[in-house]
Amino acid sequence: MIMSTDKKLCFVIMGFGKKKCPDTNRTIDLDETYKKIIRPAVQSCNYTCVRADEILDSGIIDRSMYALLYSAELVIADISTFNPNAIYELGTRHALKPYSTIMIREDGNKIPFDINHNRILSYNHLGNEISDTEAKKCIKNLKELIKAATENPITDSPLYTFIPNITQPIVSEKDLNEIIGDLKSREDNIFALTEKAKRYMQENNFTQAAETWKKLSIRVENEIYYIQQEALCTYKSEHPDKLQALTKALKIIGQISNQTDTETLGITGAINKNLWKELNDKGYGYLNTAIECYKKGWNLYKDYYTGENYAHCLEQKSILEQDGNNKIYYKVEAKNTRLEIINIVLKSLEEADTEELKWKYATLSNCYLAIDDTDKATEYENNFKSQNPANWEIVTFEKSKQDIISSKNMR
After folding, report:
1. Residues 306, 293: contact at Cβ < 8 Å?
2. How far is 269 from 50, CA to CA, in rounded Å?
3. Is the pTM of this model over 0.85?
4. What DSSP state is assigned to residue 99?
5. CB contact set of 276 (below 8 Å; sequence gap of 6+)
6. Summary count for the chain: helices (H), strands (E)
């Protein structure tokens, strides 16, 4: 049997991990969508919920995926961020089955022209998480759509809508069983490994976290989210020592070509900045590279994280610079950048989710400290700590704070 249960199968089409929307430049954690909306809604409707990362690895995973797209009684496709694999798999499902495909998307994402006549369930994602209120509402709405698709299926495929007499392909049960086999244990699938890696990070166990992200990176080729997290945890692990960890992390992040997203630019900048500190690079080589990365992220997207680090690195340059005019330029550019960051972040506080709010408070505290507004710096530091940050997050904040204090003392 394909399944070890008598329940009907729902196959979920979507990206994994954090993805950036090309329309809004917002990064959303699609695993949160799966965990808080899709899976609970599907399971409460008495379906077995399976995402592509939960398919047995034996053989070619693509063969299992296509077989599931054909055989699943229900398919839910999340087209948020226009993940190319998800869009392609949705098209495959529409070619294989005339009905029982439900589409969902995050608010703000445009709907591709070819499918904008279909009903699509929208949900509001805060970026790193989905609020309990939103999750509860969307689970209810998704359950209603699942019930309707189960009890009274209607044609939802554009292909079968516009060419109703087309012949649907037929695959025998025997062939399906040979292709799919049993579904993988949930203890070693991509979703479970991702949750394990995140837990290691919360526990400050960056060595184990890096190894887990590496397993994910090997299993899912060219998935930059896993590469980013492996590089981040590798340099934070400081194993076997700081220099070797940073050098290894730089090699890992270098696997990502055309580095234009803020996450990759931010991590690459951080690695280079820390290499400069570790090597005391008088030639500014690593510091200059860090500035280039942070500046790119700041100028392209006005991303406050890369902006804050851009300003900090400029301050370091101003300290080291011998030319008087350049020294003044770096100081002024750093201050103006911090003022712009403060303005941007203050306007966005009400829209921030809990995770993002924590880092926005940290950013405001550091920026105010750098421009000598100590009262505001203390206020937002207290706000940051009130968000119950993990130990490693507190350490990261304190390092940034000490870097700013050291820079001010060296002026």
Report:
1. yes
2. 37
3. no
4. B
5. 284, 285, 286, 287, 290
6. 18, 7
pLDDT at 133: 87
As a whole number of angstroms, the distance between CA 258 and CA 290 comes to 16
What CATH number has the domain spanning 8-180?
Answer: 3.40.50.450
Instruction: Say what angle helices 304-320 and 354-370 make with each other, to 10 degrees.
Output: 20
Distance CA 119, CA 107 (A): 14
**Dist CA 164 CA 130 (whole Å):** 39
Give pLDDT, residue 149. 92
Q: Are 271 and 287 in contact (CB under 8 A)?
A: no
What letter represents residue 54's amino acid?
E
Whether the domain at 8-180 and the domain at 190-410 fall into the same CATH topology? no
Beta-ladder partners of 101: 75
Report the candidate in 89, 71, 90 with the shortest Cα–Cα distance to residue 170.
71
Q: Tokens in use for 215?
A: 């397993």
Tokens 């400081």 correspond to: 238
The pLDDT assigned to 185 comes to 46
Burial of 355 (0-12, 13-18, 19+ CB in 10 A): middle
Task: Report CA-CA distances (Å) from 224 to 27, 135, 356, 386.
Answer: 13, 27, 21, 32
Contact criterion met (CB below 8 Å) for 154 and 97: no
For strand 8-13 and strand 74-78, is the pairing parallel, antiparallel, or unpaired? parallel
Burial track 291-303 (b if 16+ CB lie within 10 A, e otherwise): bbbbbbbbeebeb
State the CATH class of domain 190-410.
mainly alpha
Listed as ranges, residues in the chain with pLDDT below 50 are 1-5, 56-60, 184-186
Residue boundaries of the structural domains of the chain: 8-180, 190-410
Smallest Cα–Cα separation from 100: which of 122, 70, 79, 123? 70
**Amino acid 111: pLDDT:** 65
- What phi and psi values does residue 312 have, to the nearest 5 degrees? -65, -40
Within 194-275, strands assigned E span none
